[in-house]
Amino acid sequence: MVLCMNSCTAARRWLRLLVLALVGAPLLALAAPGELVVRALDAASGRSLSGVRIEVTDRDGQSVRAFSDDRGEARFGNLEEGFYRVEASAEGRALTLEPTFRILAGRSASLEIQLPRLERLADTPLEEVLVVARARQADRLSGVSASFRNRDELRNAVGAGPDVMRALDGLPGLVSDGAFAGFTVRGRGPRNNLIFVDDFPLDKVVHFDQTIGEDDDIGGGGRFSIFAPNSVAGAEFSPGGWGAAYGGRAGSLLRLELAEGGLTPVTSLRLDVAGAEFTYDGPSGFDDDTSVFFTARRFDFGNLFELIGQDAIGTPKVTDIILKTSTQLSERDELQFLVIHAPEDFTRDLDNVANSDDFDNVNLIRSTQDLSLFGVTWRRMVGNSGEWSNRLYLRSSDKDSTQGEAFPDLAKDGVIPARETVFSILEKEDELGWRSDFTTFNRFGEFSAGLRVVRIDADFATQLDGPWIRYVYESDDPRPPGQQYIVWQPENIEARFGRAGTNLAAYVEQSIELDRFELRPGLRVDRDAFSEESYLSPRFSLDYLATPTLRFSLTSGLFHESPRFLTRAANPANFDLANEKIAHVSLGLDYTINDAWNVIAEVYHQDLDDLVVDQSRANRRALNAGDGTSSGFDLVLQRAFDNGWSADLTYSYNRGRQDDNDGRGSYTPDFSREHFFSVGSRWEVTDRLQLAARWKWGSGRPGDAFIIHQNVMPGSGLLRASKEITEQNATTLGDYQSLNVRVDYRRRFGPMDVVLFLDVINLYGAERGAPQDFNPITGRQIDDEASPFPQFGLILERAW
Predict the structure, then answer these.
(1) DSSP assignment, residue 142?
(2) Which residues, other chains included, contact 679 with Cβ-Cβ below 8 Å and sequence gap of 6+?
(3) I need a labelling partner for 591 at 20 to 30 A (CA). Which of 96, 422, 558, 621 fits?
(4) Contact status, residue 115 vs residue 52, Cβ threshold 8 Å
(5) Region of residue 22 (phi > 0: left; psi between -120 and 50: alpha; otherwise: beta)
(6) What does DSSP say about strands 184-185 and 468-470: parallel, antiparallel, or unpaired?
């Protein structure tokens, strides 16, 4: 399935309508003023702060001021619609700001500002102290590369469209090529990322994460996120070195916090050529202390592909339903419920095969997935500085994928012969979990501890309906002498992994403040019921505030990554695979040039052991035989939003090597790009019009050395070629580059806000340098022609 597509007549018609609406629509009604409620909190404990000076400034420099009350709140009424800068200041705390916050007419908006303490600069003269913090920040003890993006930054990110995962471009070490919603970090794959949603583990956040089909689809990590940017209040990202509260992955930690209902009831309807999305955001209507966020969307991309003449892709359909309620039970207790239901369906049939150029893709695909998450969170403030949170959740995933093969070159009288169902993979996983975390402050600093209990019932199976010829193979794959292809046999392929087990984990951390230093040692203990092993994972991080504008960070730790159940199920010999081991260390600096510009630089190194590697394509056997290293550095220059514009420039260098210890030597890992560069900017032209652009360039990924053999099945009636891989990742593929642009326009028509948007990925159709699939009918590598991918639509919003 390929989502890169050519521009089309229908897209041009939509663009004309968009331009007409931007320049020609009259204003039908004057807007009522808006309101802003700012809540000041202690950044460490989350407690309300009274007496904080809050200043709200519009784009013309006009300011209003107020002080927070005993609940930490300051209210600002009669604000005209537009963008505002919000600053919070208090004695002994860093000046904290939100550089741009949008006020909409007739709505009450809320903003939380977390103010850090300044004890670590107590020996510095007050006139030299100028520490500026954002309203909310990432965990500073996770390293200088740890980043936080708020809701406004996510939903206005260029290239994001209706997908929050595409809104992460520009983060340190992160690489995304636009064709997939999945991303890679510091040379590791898209499935090496640890993802949490409201602190519930949810690795399946992307639709169409294929387990069958073309190699590019299987390795890409999925096409379309289940979360729209507007559904996410904030995204906290760490490319490595996070604390002991979270388990291990070799890639990154991404924590998505879903939006909560606001003070004013708002409904919105988003329309585009693929489908529609409805959202309600506001009070519950049945309890004064309960808010509700609800969104439901349905997209049928098959309609879009038919419209633009890309019928060969297939028919992907998704439905995403999210419900989140938040109830303030008392001054110290909060209760949240979360429901996510995200089914998907993908079909590629004989009609799609017939429409493919040169029969490049003869796969017949049928894939369905039913994904659900039900979670409840109870948070309680304990004492003067403590918090105890408990999360109970049930996650269920049931996926059924089948692959067949068509023979379009043997068609007679318009009928294409086919084996409809040859290979099947069943993936069923039920997870019941409890996560308990306690934090408090003592004379040393912050103390935290937690417990994880997870019961997993996994049922995975692979089935093969008779022998199946595979035309891509490696030189050392077992086969008869002279045979230039491999044959999958049911006795070598079929396997079923059906096990249930309880995974346990516990952790403890203590931060210690010593003058300008803050350090955090931690220890995590895991018991993996499926590998039947226990693991110790020590963590250590250090933050040194050299001056008010310069800080250094050190992170280190041992992380363990469990093999995928799909890998275990591929062969009975894989059932007892052990966890991979990742030893990580990083050293970074963060220099603040002024209150708008800052520079981040971080070097890192990882030692990788017990890597799961494929032994053979013929029987899908895997071993914990691999080891390797990953080293590099990230450099970021960023400008916070100020005077109507923001910008960032990111450069990442990565050097990775891996050895499967199979006698063939070391090679560059699949997703390693030695160089990656990204520059982006956002410009608020007026209160109504926003423009954004991002250009990305990356050096080529590694590619295999291979030989193509022609007519490998003489006398069979089939004219087929094969591809023999002689050396893994021995060459370098083409460079990747892409220019993405975005236009957003908002205007009020009576009681309705209308938002028109145009978001174009890969504006000038540059190649993305992806690995090429092979066509055994023509005997050629498939040239995946890149082209612009426009996303455009209309959003209707109304406050009640």
Answers:
(1) G
(2) 647, 648, 649, 650, 694, 695
(3) 558
(4) yes
(5) alpha
(6) unpaired
Q: Please determine whether the domains at 9-28+138-407+420-799 and 34-134 fall in the same fold group of CATH.
A: no
Tokens of 25: 């629509």
Give the residue, 651 or 13, on which the prediction is more confident: 651
**Alpha-carbon gap, residue 481 to 499, rounded angstroms:** 39
* Residue 154 backbone phi and psi in degrees, to 5: -70, -45
Decide the pairing of beta strands 53-58 and 82-89: antiparallel
pLDDT bucket at 20, cuts 50 / 70 / 90: very low
Would you give the DSSP letter of residue 594? Answer: S
Residue 675 buriedness (CB in 10 A; 0-12 / 13-18 / 19+): middle
Residue 3: its H or E element: none
**Assigned CATH class of 34-134:** mainly beta
Q: How far apart are CA 494 and CA 263, in angstroms?
A: 55
What is residue 306's DSSP assignment?
Answer: H
Residues composing the chain: 800
Q: What is the pLDDT of residue 425?
A: 94
* Higher pLDDT, residue 743 or 620: 743
Contact 475, 725 (CB under 8 A): yes
3-state secondary structure 658-715: EECCCCCCEECCCCCCCEEEEEEEEEECCCCEEEEEEEEEECCCEEEEEEEECCCCCC
Residue found by looking up tokens 């004492």 in the block:
383
Rg (CA), the chain: 27
Band of residue 120 on the pLDDT scale cut at 50, 70, 90: low
Of the pLDDT bands very low, low, confident and very high (cuts 50, 70, 90), residue 27 is: very low
CA distance 2 to 367: 16
Burial class of residue 311, CB neighbours in 10 A (0-12, 13-18, 19+): middle
Nearest to 455 by CA among 437, 434, 472: 434
The closest of 427, 304, 419, 426 to 363, measured between CA atoms, is: 419
Q: Identify the residue with better confidence: 125 or 334.
A: 334
3-class DSSP assignment, residue 425: strand
Tokens read off for 412: 């007679």
**C-alpha torsion sign, points 546, 552, 556, 561:** positive
Between CA 604 and CA 582 the distance in angstroms is: 12
Output the CA–CA distances (angstroms, integers) from residue 490 to 59, 365, 464, 495, in the order listed: 68, 19, 5, 9
Q: How confident is the model at residue 31 (pLDDT cuts 50, 70, 90)?
A: low
Choose which CATH entry (3.30.390.50, 3.30.365.10, 2.40.170.20, 2.160.20.10) describes domain 9-28+138-407+420-799: 2.40.170.20
What is the rounded CA–CA span in Å between residue 610 and residue 615?
A: 14
For the chain, which residues make up each domain, given as ranges? 9-28+138-407+420-799, 34-134
Q: What percent of the chain has pLDDT over 90?
A: 66
DSSP state of 188: B
Compute how many other C-beta atoms are within 10 angstroms of the C-beta atom of residue 634: 26
The DSSP-derived string for 456-497 is: EEEEEEEEE-S-EEESEEETTS---TT--SEEE-HHHH-EEE
Tens-digit pLDDT profile for residues 645-677: 999 999 999 999 999 999 989 999 999 999 999
Instruction: Name the residue type at position 375.
Output: G
Tokens matching residue 362 = 């003869």
Tokens, residue 109: 């908006």
pLDDT band for 272, please (50, 70, 90 cuts): confident
Q: Quick check: 556 and 539 in contact, CB under 8 A?
A: yes
Cβ atoms 632, 652 nearer than 8 A: yes
For 314, the 3-state DSSP assignment is coil
Q: The dihedral of CA 71, 76, 77, 79: what is its sign? A: negative
Residue 744 · residue 710 · CB < 8 Å: no
Number of H helices, E strands in the chain: 7, 49
